Amino acid sequence: MKSSNRCIATTLAIAASISSSAAFTAPSSSRVSSTQLNVVGEQASSIGPAQVLRNLKESLPQISWLAEGDAPASNKIDIPDHVATVLAQPDAPKREAESDERTERIRNRAKQASEDAMKLRGMLIGEDDEKAWWRTQRSIPEGGRVVTKDDPLTVIVAGGGLAGLVVAAAAHAKGMKVALFEQASSYAPYGGPIQIQSNALRALQQINPTIFEELVAAGTCTADRVSGLKIGYRKGNKLAGLYDAGDWLVRFDTIGPALEAGLPATVVVDRPVIQQILVKHGFPEGTVRIKSRIQQYEDLGKGRGVAVTLEDGTKAYADVLVGADGIWSQVRKNLHGLDDGAGGFAASGAAGGALDDAEARKLARDTVKIAAKADRRFSGFTCYAALAPHRASNIENVSYQILLGEKKYFVSTDGGGERQQWFALIREPAGGVDPEPTPEDPHPKLTRLRKEFAATGSGDADGNVWDPFALELINASSEEDIKRRDLYDGAPLLTTLDPQRLLSPWSKGPVALCGDAAHPMMPNLGQGGCQATEDGYRLIEELAKVQNTRDVPRFLGGYSRVRVIRTAIIQGFAQLGSDLLVDFDLMMTIPLLGPFFLTMTQLSMPFILRYLYTPSF
Fold it and tell me: Given a cut of 60, is residue 31 above it in pLDDT?
């Protein structure tokens, strides 16, 4: 079974990498020029094979009576029998029911964790900073030094998001001396809650059982309900199947594959709480230093480590440097010899929360330039996101769902504490921004989203009347809480003929990458942070084998070779899935192909989840 899962996963990843050049090509200059990046609401059309099918369908006679009639009642059942059977198992998790007390507890803990971060609790400051171990360059002979319990490996981690925190916690758990440098001036977590899926929980459990226990206790179980895909608006016909707005297309559970693998159930936890737990239980106070952007580094060679230069000129020295500094990684820029401008400020797990709308507009335009230098790929989507303080109407039965439509889709997931994390992904050119608020329209983001997912009247610009659940969450959010950013990722497989990079994809000498710096991916599978967590575990497991510092490059190379195939496959899942989601509505109107595609999607989900939820990585 395990080998068949890998075959399926590899096939999908290869398919995604083959189609990526067509599926993620930026819109042509006839649609938007480089000086016309503030276009509001312009959407790119379907591309690749889907556009051929769409053009063919539009050229054929449209017979209205085929689309008339009632959709099957079974499409409206949240928990079908096959899911109910799994959820009823004795060892299946049962979440703590939402209540006023629990809601207050979850929300207050997130608020308190954010306040603690802003107050720099546990950060490296003052006299301790001036005496930090990494400020002194050691005299290490050519050929390196012996690593012992009393004289352990020293590690500098760039980036204070989830990837960096996990690496630092894993390094400390193995007895290494570690320092974490975060570029932001305030350690304010960005974004809403994170789903820590079963595979990531296992990695954290192996790194530090206390961290695992604290996260599970602080989290909300999401594996006790159904997940899946819905159609956003009425679609289909008598030949391909009829679907009303909000009807289920695919339903699945995440607990079955986890139980099969002996893994804990997925939970969702607020980012500041995750940060607080990792900082408190992962390593000593004074490990994290803010306002510390790494500008460049020098490989001292022959086992003598690395010399790091911060943006303010401060020097730091260690045996190993780990770049966990996000998709626009400055460490990656230096590691791969990319052009100037390839490293930039990112709305990362630690820094991005400080962005206001004015900064976000500037960042959207700057990111287009950075991406070209950094060899990153625009996914074709801009993303609006918010955490709505709202008890969803389907909260008891549904933990995660996607409403699908042409050129856009709407994702929602239980955020715990009677809140819903939602994402509206719209296919359009990169660099777009929303209008600034005016007296006539003080809420431009809300205005746009209410039009995009209109549930009454003539519907959206294409005449589609959406299921009201999207607006239920949008209307429960404030303009200030809605953040917008373009989504970028990386090639799912290596796009280089450089022998060194093929042999050691994410490392060179005493320097390695992990997380988004190594493999940024689309958010569809919720695996970005989970794969970063796996990275942190595997990287430090390899470094723990080092007995002499001259061996560091060999073990870092081993880490990247082990991880690159698995992450490439999961990137492929996410990229292929994202491109297919916006053309699902097309499939709903094609006889034979539509039902076949839905059936294969339903049948493949357990295999995909079994591949994700592996106990070893």
Answer: no
